Amino acid sequence: MALQSTEILFLDKDTASASLQGKGVLILSPAFYWFTKERMQIPLSQAKKIAPSMFEGITPPGEYSYYVEKIGEEYWFFAYNDQEILDKLSTIGIKPSQISKVYPAQLALKDIHIPIKVGNKVLLNDNGTTILLPKSLVEAETKRLQELKLNLPKRSLPLKAYSSFAISEDLIYKFAILVFIAILAYAVEIFIYKKDLAKVTATQEALMQKYHLPPTSIQIKNILASLEKIQKEQLKLREQLEYILRMPLSPTEFIESLQYGKKIIFTVMLNNPKRAEFFKKYLLKKLRVTKISVKNRTMYVECRV
Amino acid sequence: MNRINPLYIALFLVFILVITIYQKHKIEEMLSQEEQRLHQIQDVAKKISTLKHYWGDQKIQRQRVLNLVNSPIIRPFIKTSQQNRDRYKLFLHHIDAKNADRVADKIFNSFVRIGSLTIDRKNKENISMEVEFRY
């Protein structure tokens, strides 16, 4: 990555102030990292695994991140404290979002062999290792960082910009995985429900076709209501006629005539007109009698249906 | 440093989860309503089917009336009958009291729609009946 116009910020523990217009590349002073290199015949993935052990006994106690880069035949190992870098950035008023990439000076300046002046110090390549010395100790001609054309590697340090959270990043990722699993579980459930819903709808339609039901529930209700009305009328008719025909008549008494239409009219031949009172009580139990009269021995009755 | 804040990812996933849960509950509710509707339709359909079979189907009603009219209990007493598209009127005569009861029972125990009924007793051996059936 050849830098032309991208802003470069060199961060040292002594940096008192800095400003970035937009996003910039951060170059870390050797004061912010530990560096060691080793010639090894192992793959990068394995080198990454052994990175922490490379700094055992070197770094003071603390939480470190490790970064490994293969340069030629060598593996370059870096250990750094994310929080320390972030805190420094914060004190000079630079937000993590303003930084696009982070490089240790060792990586960023690996191809530069002339001393580089940064503030009142000088970055120097000493037998392949970039070191930071006070300017007074370096007599050679220096150049400013901005004057150089840097060829930065594609990969950069993955700075844990969010380690300042009360919740650790690992915990957030674990939580996110759990949430994702829950989403998947719910999505599967939704899929099953949708399938069930389609089945239920299909069954409903099949049922409507089988019984020749109209599409709306109002029409269905109307059909049901009219059929129930017919049934009610017919059962009532039978009940009323049955009640009249089963009147407790004596052997010589009989129903002379009966008409069932809009109303029920019937005449009963009685043994004795006094019996009419008994029949009146009997009929009133189940029929809506509107008129009862007795002439000679004939009882005339009119009822509402 | 260009990485997306994992907290944002987590929050985004939580948001998706909330939407998914809402969708799940919505569809669950819909399914429950549709299942309930299915049961209602099943019940109503069976009810309608039964009631139609008893009272609503014109063809069945007509057949039942004909069966009734041709039954050995009723047939001997038929004086005359009148038929039109939706009615059948039957005139019976010379029925004795005992058979009048049997005829009435036979009619009342059949799933036929009775429109009107007239009974007229001249004497114990001569009862006439007039029944109107509707289809």
Write up this protein.
- The complex is a heterodimer of chains A (305) and B (135).
- Chain A is of the alpha+beta class.
- Chain A has 3 domains: 7-164, 2-Layer Sandwich (Nucleotidyltransferase, domain 5); 167-213; 241-304, Gyrase A, domain 2 (2-Layer Sandwich), CATH 3.30.1360.
- Helix content of chain A is 35%, strand content 27%.
- Chain A has 6 helices and 14 strands.
- In chain A, the strands form 4 sheets. A 4-stranded mixed beta sheet of chain A has the order 9-8-7-10, with no helix packed on it. In chain A, strands 11-12-14-13 form a 4-stranded antiparallel beta sheet, covered by helices on one side.
- The longest helix of chain A has 42 residues, at 169-210.
- The model of chain A has no long low-confidence stretch (mean pLDDT 88).
- Chain B has a 4-stranded antiparallel beta sheet.
- Chain B has helices spanning 6-56, 58-69, 97-108, and strands at residues 78-83, 87-95, 113-123, 126-134.
- Helix content of chain B is 56%, strand content 26%.
- Chain B has 2 domains: 1-56; 58-134, Gyrase A, domain 2, CATH 3.30.1360.
- Chain B has 135 residues and is of the alpha+beta class.
- Chain B is rod-shaped.
- The chains are: A alpha+beta (305), B alpha+beta (135).
- Chains A and B meet through strand 6, helix 4, helix 5 and strand 11 of A and helix 1, helix 3 and strand 3 of B.
- Strand 11 of chain A pairs antiparallel with strand 3 of chain B.
Itemize the secondary structure elements and their pairings.
The complex is a heterodimer of chains A (305) and B (135).
Chain A: E1 7-11, E2 24-28, E3 33-39, H1 44-54, E4 65-71, E5 74-80, H2 82-91, E6 99-104, H3 105-108, E7 116-118, E8 121-126, E9 129-134, E10 143-144, H4 169-210, H5 217-245, E11 254-260, E12 263-269, H6 275-286, E13 288-295, E14 298-304
Parallel strand pairs in A: 1-2, 2-6, 7-10
Antiparallel strand pairs in A: 3-5, 4-5, 7-8, 8-9, 11-12, 12-14, 13-14
Chain B: H1 6-56, H2 58-69, E1 78-83, E2 87-95, H3 97-108, E3 113-123, E4 126-134
Antiparallel strand pairs in B: 1-2, 2-4, 3-4
